[in-house]
Amino acid sequence: MFKITLRAARVNKGMSQGEVAVEVNKSVDTVQKYEEDSTNIPHAFLLELLDLYDVPDEHIFLGKESVKTGFRKRLYQRKTV
After folding, report:
1. Axis crossing angle, helix 43-53 with helix 17-24, rounded to the nearest 10
2. Could you give the CA distance from residue 29 to residue 27 in angstroms, rounded to a whole number?
3. Which of 28, 43, 34 is nearest to 63 (CA)?
4. Distance between CA 61 and CA 75 in Å, rounded?
5. Is the pLDDT of residue 68 over 80?
6. Residue ranges of domains in the chain, CATH in brackets
7. For the chain, where are the alpha helices, taking DSSP H only?
8. Tens digits of residue pLDDT in 7-54
9. pLDDT value at position 2?
């Protein structure tokens, strides 16, 4: 069975983080935080998002988004010569 991230579920629904934040009465920072890492998302908040996105829980990947997507934010370090 395939699984998608919370960000993918939101995008598939055609919503911005700001729109979601207003709908669930949370800050944009909170929505962004749990899109990046849903490991410790409160259960009630997860259920609210799943209802909003109209996605069954078995289709959602819970954990660090970078693990699912293979993308990791990198800090660019200055090269020393």
Report:
1. 120
2. 5
3. 34
4. 25
5. no
6. 6-69 (1.10.260.40)
7. 6-13, 17-24, 28-36, 43-53, 65-69
8. 999 999 999 999 999 999 999 999 999 999 899 999 999 999 999 999
9. 82
Residue type, 35: E
The closest of 65, 66, 36, 34 to 50, measured between CA atoms, is: 34
The whole-number pLDDT of residue 66 equals 66
The C-alpha atoms of residue 10 and residue 12 are separated, in whole angstroms, by: 5
Contact 54, 25 (CB under 8 A): no
Written as six digits, the tokens of 54 are 């109209």
Q: Are 23 and 45 in contact (CB under 8 A)?
A: no
pLDDT tops 60 at residue 76: no
- Token pair belonging to 67: 């693990």
Q: Phi first, then psi: what are they for 26, rounded to 5°? A: -130, 170
